[in-house]
Structures are given as structure tokens and as C-alpha cells.
Amino acid sequence: MVKYFLGQLSPDQERQIEECYFANDKLFDRLQAIKEELIDDYLQGKLSDEMHQLFERNFLASPARRQQVEFARSLMNSIPASASGTDRTPRT
Questions:
Q1: What are the pLDDT digits (tens) for 8-50?
Q2: Among 19, 74, 21, which residue's Cα sits nearest to residue 43?
Q3: How far apart are CA 77 and CA 19, in angstroms?
Q4: In sequence order, which residues have a C-beta less than 8 Å from that of residue 81 and are 6 or more positions away?
Q5: How far apart are CA 88 and CA 92, in angstroms?
């Protein structure tokens, strides 16, 4: 499912995933959780160089997704590092 968000699937594979998650609430919820995890990993600099590039090129191509990332960034920046127990230094 990460490949779906990073634009690494064929159009047929993407369509199959979309048909499945529109018909299955649990799969849709799981896909949303994976998306949030991917965004968090991106913001925390946990993605490999290749995944980082794919994320920026494909995931961030959508204005709605860019907005989600900015919202998550704002949320992360509003929580003190000591409270979350993680280093939230953004990747440059």
C-alpha cells in the first residue's frame, strides 16, 4: 500500500486498490493509517533517500496531500519533543 502512495503501481493496480478500499471500510481505514504513518516518517526523516524522493515527487504532487503534510507538520511542531519521545528534526 505504500507503493500506492508513492506512485509505484501501474494504473491497473491503483484502480484495483481503489475499488477494494471503496468497498471495504476496514481496508480504507488501514490505508488511511498507512498514509498517516508515511507522512510522519517523511516529516521525521525516517524514509530512505529513494522513498523520500518518491514521496516528494509523487505524494506531494496532490494539493490535498501537501495540505495534509503541512497540517501534520504543524501538529508535530506544536508538541514538545520531550512529550513525544522522538526527534522531530525535519530532513533537509
A1: 999 999 999 999 998 999 999 999 999 999 999 999 999 999 9
A2: 74
A3: 36
A4: 87, 88
A5: 12
